[in-house]
Amino acid sequence: MRLRSVIVCVSVALAARPAAGQGSGSALMTGTVLTAITISGSDLVFGNVLTTQSKRVAAAGGGRFVLAMAPATPVTIAYSLPASLGPGVALGSWELLSNPLNDPASAQAIPVASTTGSFTASTATGTLYLWIGATVTTSGAGVGSYSQPITLTVTYN
Which of 11, 41, 81, 92 has its CA at a distance of 20 to 30 angstroms from the CA of residue 114? Predict the structure, then answer.
């Protein structure tokens, strides 16, 4: 007895048909390229200080930053302030002022609770001025020149 194999192929073509009640839609994708943020600044200078002394530099006469950014676009300004300039040279009582005009007398005081923090700002012109001041207190500090960076990080919201 012989076995015969029979192979049967059946092809069925199925056409995709829309289901009842099916629809489609579209939306645009948009974006805005903003001006790069630039930061320039001048140093907070305490001048000459004795080995045991406390000296205050008010923000209005202290260091200054100028921020250039896209007009009317909110930014977050994060700061990092040093706690000291070196051994025996403590910093404290930080003061920060902000104004879209180059005028510290009419600037808004920004609360500084610790050496790190942040706040939000926006200006119609795209220019923001910041002034920074602090108190340096020396306690048996060695003779020499001391410096530490003040860091600002500015990002669009």
Answer: 41
